[in-house]
Specification:
This protein is about 65% helix and about 10% strand. By secondary structure, it is α+β, with helices and mostly antiparallel strands. The protein has a 6-stranded mixed beta sheet. Bound molecules: zinc ion.
């Protein structure tokens, strides 16, 4: 049951860039997820990978499906989760302006074979959103959590009464199983509905439904073999078979059942696989899969990332140079070239490639943030102003990007503007959920800013928003 796993049917509460880690083309962020109704036992940190190239490909897959479903694409955000397991899930977003989030694991990209399979998964998740399942999911999870909490109470009581750790743990497990089985029964009908709605959106967009079928068939087979599946509380194998048979009939009935992926789409998919596997797998494994004899773009890309990771910057540079020569108008190759130079402690040499990536794709905030970071890393006063301008444009699209706020504070510091540096630090803390820090820096920023100015007003707004929140918690 890898897809739409109930443990990932969770409420996304805030995004936190725990460490401002950036690596060739990627930024790693950490999100805190808390499952609905069960707190804080199932709170988990989820590591996100931010990458303009992959995010854009996912969006290009997803947006036509949302339009077909009558949903405004601006209300759904896609997130790439760093996890080798194959999984995807739709969740409600608590963020303003976003109604739902779709989370896709990196393992999904690495394990699937075709763009059409990934699009099929997204169509299924879009089916959950269009079917309004997420709201009902929340209440189902709340109901399902009750036997679990009872189980926990019994477990703790048994342990306290000296019943031995094992007896207590057993009761906790039973409670969890009861909760899960209740949730599973509820979700089976929803899974079927999501399949059917997803197929409808694929039909509307003239795409084959076969990819979705292939993925779910693989899961039914994997599940039947896994020991996990033998556990009593997921004994719905026949139901799964029925679901797949129904799906197969729907796929067959579509006039687009044989619509192929375009050669461009297949290349794009393979490039993402090369980038992710180059970065996430062990360098030795990557070099086995993409040996030097492989002079394709995929081969160069995977090796560039693997050498970057090793790190062997000289080799990484050779590989990415080869790609830039092959495709001089690809912003993502310039981005990696810029990053390699910055990592080699040559931020001055990183600026031109990053600038090229921004020129080729001016509306990509992550590219501008990286350019600004390179400009500021040179510590040349003349570059602080253009850096600030790049950050300003990026923050218009990603107002909660704490790394961009961090760099903005650096830029103001370099320009000798301490009140604005303090206000930017307040924004950084606010986006990261560090309300104490936000209140502190907003207060000292307000003291130094011209009274009545928009920035002074913003500092006061931050203090006003935080005041009641802090009081409520205390
Ligand atoms: Zn599902």
């Amino acid at each position: 049951m890898a897809f739409c796993n109930p443990l990932t049917t969770i409420q996304f509460i805030r995004r936190v860039w725990k460490e401002a880690t950036r690596t060739a083309g990627f930024a790693i962020a950490t999100l805190l997820f808390v499952s609905v109704g069960v707190q804080p036992a199932l709170a988990q940190d989820v590591e996100l990978i931010r990458d303009t190239e992959i995010e854009r490909v996912l969006k290009n897959y997803e947006d036509p499906l949302l339009v077909a479903a009558g949903i405004d694409p601006a209300t759904v955000k896609l997130y790439l989760v760093n996890d080798p397991e194959i999984n995807a899930a739709a969740t409600q977003s608590p963020l303003q302006g976003e109604e739902e989030d779709i989370l896709v694991n990196t393992g999904t990209f690495l394990q699937l074979k075709t763009p059409n399979q990934m699009i099929g998964i997204l169509a299924h998740e879009t089916g959950h959103i269009a079917g309004g399942h997420l709201i009902r999911d929340a209440s189902a999870m709340q109901k399902a959590s009750i036997p679990m909490l009872i189980g926990m109470a019994v477990g703790i009581a048994a342990m306290a009464a000296g019943g031995g750790g094992n007896a207590g743990m057993g009761a906790i497990m039973l409670g969890q199983q009861a909760a899960e089985s209740q949730f599973m029964a509820f979700s089976r009908t929803q899974e079927g509905t999501a399949d059917q709605m997803g197929q409808k959106f694929l039909l509307k967009t003239h795409q084959s439904g076969r990819g979705m079928l292939e993925v779910f068939e693989k899961f039914a087979n994997d599940d039947a073999r896994s020991a996990y599946y033998q556990m009593a509380f997921i004994s719905d194998h026949p139901a799964d078979r029925e679901r797949i048979d129904l799906l197969a009939r729907e796929v067959d009935a579509s006039p687009y059942k044989d619509a192929p992926d375009s050669p461009e789409a297949i290349h794009e998919f393979h490039m993402i696989q090369a980038k992710l596997s180059g970065y996430l797998s062990k360098p030795d494994t990557v070099l086995q899969r993409y040996p030097m004899t492989d002079q394709s773009e995929e081969g160069h890309y995977a090796r560039a990332m693997a050498y970057f990771r090793q790190p062997n910057m000289k080799m990484a540079l050779d590989e990415i140079d080869a790609l830039v020569k092959l495709e001089p108008r690809n912003p993502y190759f310039w981005e990696v070239l810029g990053q390699i130079n910055v990592e080699m402690a040559h931020p001055d040499k990183g600026i031109a490639p990053y600038q090229k990536s921004v020129d080729l794709m001016p509306d990509a905030p992550l590219l501008r943030i990286d350019l600004a970071a390179a400009q500021l890393a040179t510590e040349k006063p003349a570059l602080a102003k253009p850096a600030l301008e790049n950050l300003r444009i990026a923050l218009q699209q990603e107002n909660d990007n704490t790394f961009a706020w961090y760099e903005t504070a650096q830029a103001y510091s370099q320009l000798g503007n301490e009140p604005m540096a303090n206000l930017s630090t307040a924004e950084l803390d606010y986006s990261a959920g560090n309300m104490g820090g936000a209140a502190h820096f907003a207060t000292i920023a307000a003291q130094g800013l011209p009274k009545g100015s928009p920035d002074w007003q913003r500092a006061n707004d931050i203090m006003a928003v935080i005041g009641p929140q802090r009081r409520r918690r205390e």
